[in-house]
Amino acid sequence: DAGVIQSPRHEVTEMGQEVTLRCKPISGHNSLFWYRQTMMRGLELLIYFNNNVPIDDSGMPEDRFSAKMPNASFSTLKIQPSEPRDSAVYFCAISKGSGTDTEAFFGQGTRLTVV
Amino acid sequence: GENVEQHPSTLSVQEGDSAVIKCTYSDSASNYFPWYKQELGKGPQLIIDIRSNVGEKKDQRIAVTLNKTAKHFSLHITETQPEDSAVYFCAAPNGPLGYSTLTFGKGTMLLVSP
Asked: What percent of chain B has pLDDT over 70?
């Protein structure tokens, strides 16, 4: 977990508000993933970056979701406007190489509650 | 894309017993299969992985077996301890290795009772 710092750890917001989740990965890992975890759907991949470039965003549920990676040490996931069904735990993960055959290191997650 | 099915969804065992969690996958081209453990309030953590050039891999009390013909792989935990209680996820690549991603199973909640 120490390799990926996510903030905030918990976020409670009202429906319609903008939410920004942050991820600070340690250096040396050129793949970054955003996942969403719920009881019903498990771990879902939202978006995958390689060398700061979005490679696969097919998991982003709607246009309300957007993600950026301006540099190798910072990424954001934004939801605007937020809805109650967005309530979940959001994880940022990193790995070396392309990311599928090497270990992925997950952050501790951000628990988002939209009321 | 890859489809990963994981069973059971919950598993309760007594301390010292063995636990087995099974996963099936759909893409016969997949050749890397990791297992992650998630403790309460934490992110998933890799505990063991296997590549398709071997049928079994062990690491102390944990082992993973792979049957490529049947397209299933299993996690075996022997001599379970209360600290093994967690949610376990299997995964498989979603596409050929390279620029692709992992598809995770729905998870198995393992409870080890003292």
From this structure: 95
